[in-house]
Write a structure and sequence with these properties.
Number of helices: 17
Number of strands: 0
Distance between the termini: 16 Å
Shape: globular
Radius of gyration: 20 Å
Structural class: mainly alpha
Length: about 325
Amino acid sequence: MGLLCACLVVGIHVDWHPASGNICWFLHHVIRRGVCLIAVPYFFVVSGFFLAKHFEETNWWCTEVKKRLRTLVIPFYACTALYIVLTTPLTIVADHLAGRSFGTNLIWLHDWVWTLGLDFAKPTMTPLWYVRWLVVLVVLSGVLKVLIANLRYVFLVGLAILGLACECMPRGLLYDVLTEGMFPNCGPALGTFYFSVGIFIQMNHIKLRMPRWMSMINFIVVMLLVAGICCVENDCLKRVLLLTAVPIFLLGVYCNMPSIQVPNRITSLSFPIYLIHCPVIVYLTLIVNRLPIGKLPQSLGIYCGAVLGSIVVSLMVRKFTPRIASIVFGGR
């Protein structure tokens, strides 16, 4: 399911041109701003779940934090550097064509806090906010463990309410930090909730099961619900309704996933796709948007190209520079 969610994240970052027709409207509002929203919550839940498996081990906190330095912090800065290198030529050309002075829009020249990934209001590369916040949550996991063990459902409900409340707060620095400015996605506030849910599931040995017929009904009902929510004009209400439907929809998708053994070489592609797809989309957009085709074929071409391109790049890096692949992909 991790590979599926990585592909859904790609769908979030593709422009589906909702004004171009009914299909584009459906892909933008129902798929991109509805179905795709389960992706990042799933990653947070799984991360919390597997981290909690180590809670009974000796010196688990130090071990897990050190491990995340290799599997998250190093890939974070490696991908930040790669993104800056790949997008700098485009920015320089754009500034030149627009008659602007050299480096006008090169953020890394003017904002070192952003370049170092320490600006929590705007990530260097959009998907990296998840990697950054996951490191923070692992550092805080000792505190979360105590709170979840003692407060249980009260703590989870409190986090959920806080996350939903953040979606309706006035725009500003606090809003940007707690939500990363996503519409509506799983920002740091809700990410903490889902991460804690994963810990709670593992600590209490909860089995997530649902009869197939019930999960199918849940899947269909939530799809219709998401389609209806997308017609709501109030932005704040739309955010809250969508994010309320996400946990139910995520459970339905999870329970409908077939129980098949997928080779590790395939499942291990999810993290590279998540990390690489943004710069791939940038370059594909420049190429595809110049083709004499409609908006829908353009968006579908960029989406498929971003997924396949990310896979090809990751496989080539692993084949020809395995040491670099180990560093950039955190050993995955």
